[in-house]
Amino acid sequence: MTEGFRFLPEYFPPAAQKALVAEILAILETNPLYRGAMPRTGKPLSVRNTNLGALGWVSDIKGYRYQPIHPDTGQPWGPIPRVLLDLWSDVSAYPHPPQACLVNWYEADSRLGLHIDADETAKDAPVVSLSLGSRALFRLGGLERSSPTSSMRLASGDVVILGGASRRAYHGVDRIYAQSSTLIPGGGRINLTLRRVTAP
Ligand code: MD3
Ligand code: FE
Question: Which pLDDT score, from 0 to 100, does residue 121 have?
C-alpha cells in the first residue's frame, strides 16, 4: 500500500523547525493541549491534542468529529501558521487550503494504535504530516487492519504526504525514541497533520 505515499526526509530545515515550535508553543498558551478519550469507553488517549484552523478533530466518549470550537476553552481554534499553509501549497497538489491542523503531542510513552483517518468528507484531499522533535516508529499498512505493514522512523523535519490509496491506509505510531531530539521541551514529539475536511 504505497500508491500516493510520499516521504520527504528533512524537508523542513532546522531553523524553520525551531521557529515553528516557538510559534506553536505560543499558540498553545491560549489554545491548550487537552486529553481526548476513546468513543464509547471513554478511555483516555495516550497522545494529547489540540488543533489549529477553522475545524479541529476531537475524540471523546460520544465519538470522533470535526468541530470549530476547542472543547475546553469554548473558543475557536488558533490560526494555522503561515509556514504550514505554504507547506500545503508546495506539496499537497490540492487546489484548496487545509481547514484543520491536528496537533499530536507525544510523551516518551505515548502510542497511537493502528487506525484509519475516515472523518473527513473531502475524500480526494491528501493529508500532509510534519514531524518535530523526537523520532517515532511509524507503521503503515493497507486498506484492511489485517493487511501487511511496514515500519519506518519519522524524524524531526520529515514531511509525509498521504494521497491516493495511502490516504485510506491503516497506520499508527508504535513508539517514541525519547530524548532523540532537544527541539521540544521534555524531549517529546509533535506531529502536525494538515487536512481538508469538507469538499470545497
Ligand atoms: C496515513 N498521526 O493524526 S503522521 C493522525 O505521527 C496520525 O502523529 C500520526 O495518524 C502521527 O491521524 C502519523 C502520518 C500520517 C498521517 C495521516 C495519515 C499517516 C497517514 C492518514 C492516512 C494514512
Ligand atoms: Fe491517522
Answer: 97
